[in-house]
Amino acid sequence: MGFDAPTLGFNEPTLTVVAYLSYLAAFLFFCAYLMTRSGRALLAPRRQVTLAGAGAGAGGSMDISLEDSDGGSRPGVSYSPALGRIGTGLVVLAWLSLGTALVLRWVHAGHPPYVTLYEIATDLVFGITTIYLVLFEAVIRTRAVGAFVVLLIFCLHSYAVWFIPTDLKRTIELVPALRSNWLVIHVSMAIISYSAFATAAGAGLTFLAKHYMKGRIGAALPSGAAIEEFMFRAVAVGFPFVTLVLITGAIWAQEAWTKAWSWDPKEVWALITWLTYAAYLHVRVQRGVRNVTMAWLSLIGFAVVLFTFMGVNYLVEWFGLQSMHTYSIDNGKPPGLSVASIGTIGIFVVLLALAFISWLRVKFPSKRVRK
Amino acid sequence: MSNRVTTVPNKGVAPSKPPVAQQSSGAVDAPGKQRSDFVETVWALFCSVRFAVVLNVALALSAMLGTTIPQMPAGIQNFDQELKQFLDDAQSRYGDLSGFLYWAGFYDLYYSLWFRLLVVMVVFSIIMCTLNRWQPIMRQIRTPSLRFSDGFISGLSEKAEFRSVPVDVSSAERALRGALRKGRYRTVAQASEDGKTLYVYADRDRWSKLVTFVSHAALVMLILVWAGLANFGWREQSVYFYPGQPVNVGHDTTFSVRNDKFWIDYYADGKTIKEYKHTLAVLENGQEVLTKTIVVNDPLRYKDINFFLVSYQPVVYVKAVDTGGKELEARKMTASGPITATTGTAGALVQFDQISGDNLPQDYVQFPVGKSFLTLAMTYYQDVSRLESENPPVYVQAFVDKNFETPIYDGFLPRTGSLKLPGFEQVSFSFTRDTATILEVAKDPGLGLVGFFFAIMTLGFTFSLYTSFARCWARIGVDETRPGTVSLLVGGLAEKNKVSFERDFERLALRIKENLGAAAREATRGSTLDMPAPAAEPLEV
Ligand code: HEM
Fold it and tell me: Where does residue B69 fall: left (phi above 0), alpha (psi -120 to 50 degrees), or beta otherwise?
């Protein structure tokens, strides 16, 4: 088993590839879903409470009932919900196989896969998927943001799969300073919060799509206020956890590094992340802040998150800093091209999406469903 | 739970605009006061959430800046040599700007005056904001406005109206209150003077307004306590512990700590270090009271003082014995020449703390032999493996008197046995190795308190993110168009999570409708209930 000589079978490389391809397919299905769907029926089927007689004028009737909303009765292409369900199914498949891959890696390494850059990037992919499935698909019950969240996941997973060299994907033994239960606690908190912020950024992208693309996609998405609230819900998951990242990190540092807080660059960036999302929340509390500002803020926040988790090693290199958070420097420093490579992947994905969308445009000529 | 209020302060009439909490400027205008005053302006500034955001961002940007400029290691100011070295490096990096950067505190950014000032401003801002918002929020919670104009309800995001319901006012009130109670609201009602109209106010999660105060207060306490604690602890960054020698770290401590053993555990490959292990003994009045094997993640804690393992160093004991079995006295030598320092009975200690050209640790010892003296220059080769029972991996150069050009011995120690030097065969040098450890010793009082406030803050933020102060206003009146029936108007407002509240309000309206229906069936038969749609857009998710 291992990435240097991958074989087909029930092993980490195979499961990772399955997950990777499932994300790609899920993205395409979610795009198709949006292109064929009208805005009203974006919720996964649920028992919707509506007021009987709503909008029906003064009927004088008194039927008090709970209706099952029937998404199919709304305008839209009839097989659209199926496309959405397939998308979700593929995300669940990716989640399962990536989760299994991580478990296999854990068993193989004898410690949680929380150490190398490849491991953290993969954890983040898994975490974003989990938060997306739980928060959006299960709790809020919407597939509206699926395409955008999965796009983010796919980019990140591409980075992990393609741009981290094979020899850096090997498991390594824990150095003495990492041999602590706090590793599991602290890094888990970080994965949860950063994943939630990534999910919020996915919702932010959805909002921007709604805001700037007036065509089919705009019409297919729920109202801006609703998307904005989805975004807030994700930030509300992330914020308490990023607070916990700081506190568990401080407790651990007090034990292992003799000092709870020593202004190490990584610590400082975790603090910056915290402050950024505190600013986000405070801006939201204010009246008169337009929703699109919140969407951009969620993307800025996510950029800060990405820097916190990947960029600090570069700071150490660029500015000649000292950092204690570079245990895995040999295993954590990606080749110098990585910014370019993320860009390449990004462009690749966007082109793919554009090609797909224009194909859909041709295939399903616009029959506008809502003003 | 529901209590009737007979007297209502204020005018008893809510403003015609929805009472969105005043936050954009935060400050509440006291009537008749002018804002021209400078103090007032500053006050208003510090009371505004917008300024809090600005401070917040400023703090984040400053912190970012600090991660692009190498910072001075803690405590470097006490070491002139190191400080000079650091500043020279900075000079070569930033050129003439360096002097300014040093002066402005950019090399010690997180402890600089202006960074601290920023933190003080945040604290100040939180306190002012709290003081300023306390009264309006308490008033909002304690004495809600019950009555309202028609325009007020139409300005609310959620509303529903029930007309010509064939029940009397009090059973409509029961129906309404029942539905509200089911939705976890507490209700207050007041009748108009003529008794024809009943106003009902309901709210939910009032306390969530107060939680914000608690969490921000915890944040303030956290910062203050942390800043204050810096004055109460102490820290010794590198204390040497030589094998078997108890060390008292001072600071009025009454106990000593002894280095009993140091070793390294390896993973199965035999090369990768798994754990540094260090056995320490605590001695009170020479009596051993505690022994503990510490590792990096598990320091020794005794009487609130922490001993952290930070480094280790090989040490070698050299013993020179002449034929008569007499031990020779040794002197240590430093880079600047020999000094007289007689070592103890355990032989001369070689410390390997000077670094030679090959980056290998080095040390020197001198022994007077007869009329001349011998100098041993020793270099420790960490990568050369030697068994426990063999001599340590030390490369020796031996010199006589000041002939430092021509060593009389130049090579590794023999693997076993003692070292004899040509011309000085009457002296035999024996070597034993051990490890000195370097510990950081610190007393950090009150961290528990910091943790406590941190926990309160986290809980508080979580609560305020997941709860939302929600309010409903309702009016039940006799329906003039159809005698014997009432009409009921109800509107709601939540400060957060408006989309969720929309669904929530729909559920509430449905429940009111059910209750009214039941009441109507009980009162009369055959009458109809007219139920127009809530005016808000249907849920669009
Ligand atoms: C920089 C540290 C700060 C952090 C981490 C922080 C955090 C938070 C959080 C998490 C919330 C809840 C957001 C929500 O309810 O949606 C909040 C609300 C709030 N904060 Fe802060 N805060 C900070 C500083 C301040 C300062 C300096 C002020 C005062 C000017 C302030 C005033 C407020 C206000 C007025 C609210 C709204 C409470 C409400 O919804 O009723 N905060 N803060």
Answer: beta
Q: Are A260 and A254 in contact (CB under 8 A)?
A: yes
Q: What are the angstrom distances between the C-alpha of B100 and each of A280, B74, B87, B117?
A: 34, 20, 12, 19
| Residue ranges lining ligand 1, Cβ < 6 Å | A 278, 281-282, 285; B 49, 52, 56, 122, 125-126, 129, 209, 212, 216, 219, 461, 464-465, 496
Tokens 């969720």, residue located: B500
- First-to-last CA distance in chain A? 55
- With 0-12 / 13-18 / 19 or more C-beta atoms within 10 angstroms meaning exposed / middle / buried, residue B182 is middle
What does the block give as tokens for B192? 């108009």
Nearest CA to ligand 1 atom 33: B49
What's the pLDDT tens digit per position in B476-500?
888 878 777 888 888 888 877 777 8
Spatial distance between the Cα atoms of B186 and B464, rounded to a whole number of angstroms:
19
Got the DSSP string for A95-116? HHHHHHHHHHHHHHHTS-S-SS
Q: Confidence band (pLDDT; 50, 70, 90) for B100? A: confident
Intervals of chain A under pLDDT 70: 1-2, 38-78, 287-288, 316-349, 351-352, 354-371
Q: What is the DSSP string of B347-366?
A: -EEE---EE-TTS-EEEEEE
Cα–Cα distance, A210 to B131 (Å, whole number): 40
Residue A163, SS3?
A: coil
Burial classification of residue A91, based on how many CB atoms lie within 10 Å of its CB (0-12 exposed, 13-18 middle, 19 or more buried): buried
What lies within 8 Å, CB to CB, of B353 at 6+ separation is B313, B361, B363
Residues from chain B contacting residue A40 (CB–CB below 8 Å):
540
CA of A237 to the centre of ligand 1 (A): 16
Instruction: Please check whether residue A338 is in contact with residue A163, taking contact to mean a CB–CB distance below 8 angstroms.
Output: yes
Measured CA to CA, the distance from residue B349 to residue B352 in angstroms comes to 9
8 A C-beta contact, residue B158 and residue B497: no
Q: Looking at residue B13, what is its pLDDT?
A: 37
- Write the DSSP string, B228-239: HHTTT-EEEEEE
- Kindly identify which residue of chain A lies nearest to residue B504, measuring between CA atoms: A49
**Structural tokens at position B446:** 């009150």
Q: Which residues pair with B478 in a beta bridge?
A: B486
Nearest to A243 among B50, B440, B461 (CB): B461
Picking from B322, B340, B320, the residue whose alpha carbon sits closest to that of residue B331 is B340
The mean per-residue pLDDT over the stretch B235-251 comes to: 85
- Could you tell me which of B312, B252, B321 has the C-alpha nearest to residue B280? B312
Which amino acid does the sequence have at A252? Answer: W
Q: What is the C-alpha to C-alpha distance for residues A237 and A135, in angstroms, rounded to an integer?
A: 9
Residues of A in contact with B541 (CB under 8 A): 42-43, 140, 142, 144, 222-223, 226
Q: How far is CA B433 from CA B347, B348, B381, in A?
A: 12, 12, 13
What digits encode the pLDDT tens for the residues B185-221? 988 888 887 777 888 999 888 888 889 889 999 999 9
Query: Rounded distance, CA B307 to CA B302, Å?
Result: 8
Closest CA to A223 of A41, A73, A39, A69: A39
Quote helix, strand, coil % in chain B, to nearest 5: 35, 30, 35
**Ligand 1 center–CA B43 separation, angstroms:** 18
Taking residues B9-37, report their average pLDDT: 43
Q: Find, among A134, A110, A158, A125, the residue nearest to A350 by Cα.
A: A158
Spell out the alpha helix ranges (H) of chain A: 12-35, 80-109, 117-131, 146-162, 181-212, 216-220, 224-256, 265-285, 291-306, 312-319, 329-332, 338-363
Q: Identify whether the C-beta of residue A176 lies closer than 8 Å to the C-beta of residue B296.
A: yes
